[in-house]
Sequence to fold (77 residues):
Amino acid sequence: MRLWRRLRAITITGLVRAAAVLTILALGLMVWSLLDPSVLPVMLAMSVGQLFGTIAFGMYVVAIIKDLRRARAARDP
Fold:
């Protein structure tokens, strides 16, 4: 229950910023695996990079949903 309250308290701006940071980290891992195609960078890009990218996408979708709900609540009396 406390986790749900904490998640609802996160601002839209905070979600988008965190998603952007995770996306940059994921892209950095992907670029590293392209520049150094050995086993470790490729495995990290495929596992950790994909995890970061997926979490970032989910956070961005949550931010969009929160913004749409806020706009609807402001429009409807």
User: Anything to note?
Assistant: Helices lie at 2-9, 12-35, 39-75. The chain has a mean pLDDT of 90.
